[in-house]
Structure formats: C-alpha cells, structure tokens
Design brief:
alpha+beta, 7-stranded mixed sheet, 448 residues, 4-stranded parallel sheet, disordered N terminus
C-alpha cells in the first residue's frame, strides 16, 4: 500500500488500491458504439446518441472511477442509517414543522429516485447532500453497460460475462412500489414525466429513456410540461387523457409557482400519485436536515440507535445554519466551510468559503444558507487529447427505501459539478473487491 503526504493536512494518508488506480489507469473504457446501442434500443429513441454528442458533449466521461469495497459498504450503511433516522417521530416533527402546508400531505409514497451525494476522504465517504429528484439513473445504467477493458491488466474490472443486470427492472419496480403505497392493488395505467420545458433540460434524454421503460412494462407514458396539465372533474389530465402518476422532475419542490397549480391541486386532493413529492423533499432534501444529521446529541435525544449515530457521526460533515448572530464567527472560519442555500439544487449559489467576496457574503447573510464543513472531493487522472489532467469527482448513490440501487460518479473541474468539463461528466463506478486489493498491483495499470 502506497503512502502520500497530504500538504493541506500535514499528515500521512494511506491510499488503497482503488485510489491508486484513479491516478494510474487513465485509459478510455467507453465504447461509443455500445453506448449508442444501449441508448437507442427502441426505434423511438433513434438519434439520441448523435443529439447528445451535439448538444451535451460533456454528459458522459470516457473512463470509470474506482471505489474501494470498504467505501461502498460505508455508503450503503449510511444510506440505510439515514432512512431509519428519518422514520423517527422527533426527526419528522422537526423537519415538517418548518415545511409549508403542501408538504404535510402524506399519501404513502416515499420518493422515487433518491440521490445521496458523497465526497471521499481517507477515513471514509462524507455525505454532501441529499436529493429527492436525482437525475441520471437510467443514463448511468446505459453508460455502465457500454464499458470495455482498456488492456489485459484491467480485465478483472470488465469481465467478459458480467453478472445479470436487472437495474432497469429495479427502477421500474420502484415506481410500481410507489403506486402501491398510495393505490394498493388498483391497476396503474399511465404516467407523465413532468418538468418545466422538458426538451430544454440538460437531462432531457433520460426523460425519453424513462418514457420507453414505462411503455415497455405496459404503462402509457408521456413527457409533459406542467402547463399542459389540467385539473378538472377530480382528475389530472394531459392531452385529453387522465394521468394516474406523475414522475416529478420539477425543482419547484413545493409546487408554489403559478404554472404548477394544476399539479398541486391534483396532488393535494390525492387524485394523482406524485413521486417524489413535497413531503419527501421536506423530510430528506431540505438542507437544514443535514444540521440534524450531523448533531449526535440531537439524534440521541430522538432515540436514534447508537450504531446509526456512529455511522452518521463519521459520515456527515458538521453543518450549521447561517445567521446574522454567527456572521463574524462563520466569516473567520470560512476557509474551512462550504455554503449552500437551504432550498438550492444543482449547485446553484453554492460557494467554497475560501472563494468568498464580501459582496457574496452579504448575499449569503441576507438569504437562507447552511454552512457545511468543507470536504474536498477526490481526484481522477484522465487523458484528453494526449494531455493528462486531474478532475474532481463525487459519488452519487441512487437509492429507494434505504437500499442503494446504483453508484455513479460525476467528474468535473471547478467548485461544483457542472457537466461543462472536457473529459468530465457521468462515469461508472468500479468497486474494487478485497481480493483485488490484496493481489493486484496498481503499477500494472500504469503500463496499460
């Protein structure tokens, strides 16, 4: 096992095989033809790959990210622990007390397509945020299927006969479970995938993949702008037909905007199964929840299990609310903090403390922000046009009901993930097993 001196911490950090591979194996593993086949398996999706290449050239990275088995296990444990904490009456009471009236409705669904985002430290993964409408799951399923070994030394990571892939079925079953949570055994006939101006969204290709997935399972599906929805006769309508379920990709999490009122009225009446819904956002994705998850004394007060408290204490960076009373103290500690808006998404208006200007600091104090202990992202060495460069990455765990379904990475340059970086974008995660860590030398990858 190699060692490396971390100049920012002045300490010796042991790097395992996975981390060494992220700096040694920078070959391209993405087979573009395979990716095209995966994305365009249905005739209605023909041309998607060309469209992505033209309009979203940095959606997919050409390589993978390696993750130690121990890191994967800790991520899985953390997601499960958070699910158990969210079920505690004390936690739910606090989270819902600050949420608007629309979030008080609990019709049964728990929220499809949850995303838990992590940075990796030498001592384990650290939770950066939770998202209730995390995009990219189906795109990453296709991407993972399109990888190939870059050389003989890496054949272990890309077996000729990979294990059975049931991820698409798992994702469909998740939506079926959401339907049954609210409707029981009643038949499910239709779903609308809803976002503002959906064709203009960066992840619009995924909307089409979900549409095709639902239709393959016998559920009528359409991609819809919320302005095309109607609330009448006790039902939600789209294109003259009633809508049973809405897969919600809106970032107006509490449906407060005027052009979302038809959907809001249908949701409040329990006339449509909406997932994820405002209730789930209040319980999981409001960033003030990170404050509670990082406070061991509060978790103990709510009777969280000691094992779950230990997991969260190790994995959730200390988070605090930004208030005028704390302004001087937070400014003095800003270089060790990351600031995020309570209701933010997609890294909008998020700032590293060491990059703050006084003008931006004034805006933070005037808004609703949290301050999170800074956890630097890991780095991945890649090669673009013959030039090597280090990109940052985070790990997203897609999950449902506390069970991790899929791990994917997002590689980028800059302060936050952006899908604008040459060589960056979504990347599959290869978990390095204990047997590989014990027997494999990363130096082999360097000669690949």
């Amino acid at each position: 096992m190699d060692t490396h001196t971390d100049p920012s911490a002045g300490a010796i950090v042991a790097y395992n095989t996975a981390e060494a591979l992220n700096q040694a194996c920078f070959c391209r593993t993405l087979n573009q033809d395979r990716l095209s086949e995966q994305l365009e398996r249905d005739a209605s999706l023909k041309g998607m790959m060309q469209n992505i290449a033209q309009t979203r050239p940095h959606l997919f990275s050409s390589t993978v990210v390696f993750l130690a088995n121990e890191m994967e296990q800790k991520i899985v444990a953390m997601v499960a622990a958070i699910e158990r904490v969210v079920a505690l009456p004390g936690y739910r009471s606090q989270a819902l007390a600050r949420a608007p009236a629309v979030a008080q409705h609990a019709f049964g669904p728990i929220g499809a397509c949850m995303g838990f985002d992590f940075h990796l430290g030498a001592d384990g993964p650290r939770l950066i945020e939770i998202n209730t409408n995390a995009g990219g799951a189906l795109l990453n399923v296709a991407l993972a299927r399109a990888q190939q070994s870059c050389c003989q030394a890496m054949d272990w990571a890309f077996p000729q006969k990979p294990r059975a892939d049931t991820l698409e079925q798992t994702l469909f079953d998740m939506f079926m479970a959401e339907w049954r949570c609210q409707r029981g055994a009643a038949p499910w006939g239709s779903v609308a995938i809803v976002d503002d101006d959906p064709g203009a969204q960066y992840l619009a290709p995924e909307f089409e993949l979900f549409r095709q997935l639902f239709q393959r399972h016998g559920v009528a599906a359409n991609v819809a702008d919320p302005t095309a929805l109607e609330w009448r006769e006790g039902k939600l309508w789209h294109l003259g037909a009633p809508v049973d379920m809405v897969y919600n990709r809106l970032t107006d999490f509490y449906l407060a905007e005027p052009h979302h009122q038809a959907l809001r009225q249908a949701y409040e009446a329990g006339a449509v199964v909406l997932t994820p819904d405002p209730h789930a956002h209040a319980l999981y994705a409001d960033k003030r929840n990170l404050i509670a998850l990082s406070q061991d004394a509060q978790l103990a007060h709510w009777s969280a299990a000691s094992q779950d408290r230990n997991v969260l204490q190790a994995g959730v960076p200390r988070t605090e609310l930004v208030t005028p009373e704390r302004a001087d103290d937070l400014w003095a500690r800003r270089r060790q903090l990351f600031f995020k808006p309570v209701a933010g998404y997609g890294a909008k208006a998020a700032y590293r403390g060491d990059k703050l200007t006084r003008r931006v600091w004034g805006e933070i104090l005037a808004g609703d922000f949290i301050a999170q202990a800074l956890v630097p992202p890991s780095e991945r060495l890649i090669e673009v046009d013959g030039v090597l460069s280090d990109l940052k990455f985070d790990i997203r765990a897609y999950s449902y009901a506390g069970q991790v379904q899929l791990l994917a990475a997002r590689m980028y340059a800059g302060q936050t993930t952006n899908f604008r970086t040459e060589g960056g974008g979504f990347a599959p995660v290869i978990v390095v097993s204990p047997a590989v860590q014990e027997n494999y030398s990363p130096s082999n990858a360097a000669s690949c």
